[in-house]
Amino acid sequence: MFCVIYRSPQRDQTYLYVEKKDDFSRVPEELLRGFGKPQLAMVLPLERTKKLANADIEKVKLALREQGYYLQLPPPVEDLLKIHLGKKDPV
Question: pTM of the prediction?
Fold first, then answer.
């Protein structure tokens, strides 16, 4: 199983995985509008890949089989103030 990964020109660290190059037929129109014009990032053979950098490979495979695409969103931004305020200094 191969997948083709596209980066979003509008949303930083957002990627769209599909089964075939330039085939967005199973991707909802609304998602594509928000994603912007997909920019090819890479083609990846999933059967020889054990890990992906920021996505669970089994979830990617399942999503590709069931819905025809996988959307990888950026990790949540750390709220450093909340982290700082959550730590109590010893008295």
Answer: 0.80
Condensed to tens digits (0 to 9), the pLDDT of residues 56-82 reads 889 999 999 999 999 999 877 667 777
Nearest residue to 55 via CA among 71, 31, 39, 42 = 71
Which has the closest alpha carbon to 74: 51, 45, 54, 48?
Answer: 54
What residues have CB less than 8 Å from 4, skipping those under 6 apart?
17, 18, 19, 20, 21, 22, 40, 42, 43, 44
CB atoms closer than 10 angstroms to residue 27: 18
* CB of 41 closer than 8 Å to CB of 6: yes
Query: What is the 8-class DSSP label of residue 68?
Result: S
Which candidate, 41, 49, 51, places its Cα nearest to that of 18? 41
